[in-house]
Each structure stands twice: as structure tokens, then as C-alpha cells.
Amino acid sequence: MKSFIAGIIFIVIFVLSGNVFSEENKVVETRGPSEVTKGNNLKKQDNEKVQELKYVIDFSDYQGGSVRKWLESKGLYCEGAAKYHPEIEFSIQDGMLFIETKQPVRGFLVLKDINLPEVSKVRIEWGIVKYPKDATFENGNRNQALALYVFFGLERLPSGHFMIPDLPYFISLFLSEADKINVPYKGRYFHSGGRFVCVGNPELNETVISVFDLAGAFQTYYEKESLAISGLCLEVDTTTTKGGGKAEAYIKRIEFLK
Fold it and tell me: What are 81-115's pLDDT values in tens digits?
């Protein structure tokens, strides 16, 4: 598992640097696996059936002290620039985790040792305080104020480059100021096992709950039944944006539903 997590960190750092989301690799699917809601219930009514919560990451229970140590108590460990306070600042306000960048940086919060079978959907309560300036996949500036990577299974698929380790399937979810919702993008590498999907275009300081059909999207993108979730990672990237690399986002809760 440690080698798997190390591989995730290496890949995200390597693959997200430079121009990796070329326009010719953009793929448009007809179905829409995500939706935005305004409620905040622990369980979601779907087709008259209550969906069971499989796993929750709750950022609203902070009681004081070091934010980074509190995150580690939840199994979330800082990697990349997130290790260094001046570059990426973590704070708690109104029961939400705020992540602010003050210069061009890339950092991660990695959740270690997780195995979640039979997950159908993920629900994320989050928002944006400041988008990276002019950052959209459509115009070629592919930075994000905050993204959630979800990895599936343990089978490693070819990366497409001999120097890059193979990785399991993954779907990366993010909020964008102007990108089209539910358009899965392919990167320069991992064409067989990686997709990047915008799940909302909220206004600044607007808290939204993004509900994304992981199982349905996985089946559509990869033409097979969804696998157990084997890794999670929160990522912020302002390395190529204008405006001095400044951005800020917040997140309150991540729920995985059966």
C-alpha cells in the first residue's frame, strides 16, 4: 500500500506538470453523472431508496490545535508543496477546511490505506473563494483550486510512458469557473485509465454539494463494472496560472454512498 500511495503522489506531480490536457484528447460523453444540490442530509433519497453511507470524511469537527496534525488524525497526509506552510495554508473557518495558495504551487492531501467496495456515488460539500486566474481546461490553463482524485482497484494500467509507473483506474473531480460540466478529459498519459471531470461552476463563496455517480461514470468511461475504491487524494495546482498562483477553496464533507 505504501508503494501505491507513493506512486499516486509521483504520478500526480509528474503528469499534472506542463501541458498535459491537449484539446485533441478531450472526450464528450452524452450522459451526465453529476448533479449539484443545496441540501445537507446524511443520506440521499434516490429513486425512493435511501442510500447507505459507506465512508465519510468530515472537516467540521475541528476542536483546535495544529490543523495539519488534525488532518493526520483523519489519515490525511500532506505531500508536495502542502508540506510547507508559506506555500499552501490550511485553516478552519465555520466548520470547513480552507486551502489557500499564495504562489504557484502544487500540493496534495493523501488518504492512506483505504478500501471501499460497493460505492455508487460520492457527495462533496465544497466551494471556491478564488479561482486560479483564467484557469480552464478549455483555454489550455488546466490548474484547479481543489480537486478530488478517486482511485479504483489494484490492477495497474499502462501509463503510456516507460518512465512513469503504471496506476489503477482513477477519476478526478473538480470545480471550475467556466469549464463544461461532465466532460471527461484525457491527459497526455493514462488514456486507458484516467479521466478528469468538472462537476460544477459555482460562484465565488457559493457552497455547493456535488453528487457524482462514480459507478455509472466508471462503467461509461471504462466499459466495465466499477471496482472498489483503493485510494483518495485532494490536490491543488496553481503552477501555470496567472495572477501569481493565488487561489483558495474550501471543503466541509466528503461522503461515499452505497
Answer: 777 778 899 999 999 999 999 999 889 999 977 99
Distance, CA of 178 to CA of 201 (rounded, Å): 6
The whole-angstrom separation of Cα 182 and Cα 34 is 7
Number of domains, the chain:
1
Range of the domain at 198: 2-257
The pTM assigned to this predicted structure is 0.84
Average pLDDT over residues 28-54: 54
Give pLDDT tens digits for 197-253.
Answer: 999 999 999 999 999 999 999 999 999 999 999 999 999 999 888 888 999 999 999
Residue 34 · residue 171 · CB < 8 Å: no
Ramachandran quadrant class, 181 (left: phi over 0; alpha: psi -120 to 50; beta: rest): beta
First-to-last alpha carbon distance for the chain, in angstroms, is: 24
Mean pLDDT taken over the chain: 83
Q: What angle do CA 188, 192, 197 make, to 5 degrees?
A: 70
What is the C-alpha separation between 200 and 189, in angstroms, rounded?
25
- Which stretch of DSSP H or E encloses residue 75? none
258: cell is 452505497
What gap in Å lies between CA 126 and CA 133, rounded to an integer?
A: 19
Q: Residue 35: what pLDDT? A: 66
CATH number of the domain within which 202 lies: 2.60.120
What sign does the CA torsion over 6, 166, 55, 142 have? positive
Helices (H), the chain: 2-15, 67-73, 214-222
Q: Where are the beta strands (DSSP E) in 6-158?
A: 34-37, 45-46, 49-50, 53-58, 76-80, 88-93, 96-102, 106-111, 121-130, 144-157
Q: Which amino acid is at 223?
A: E
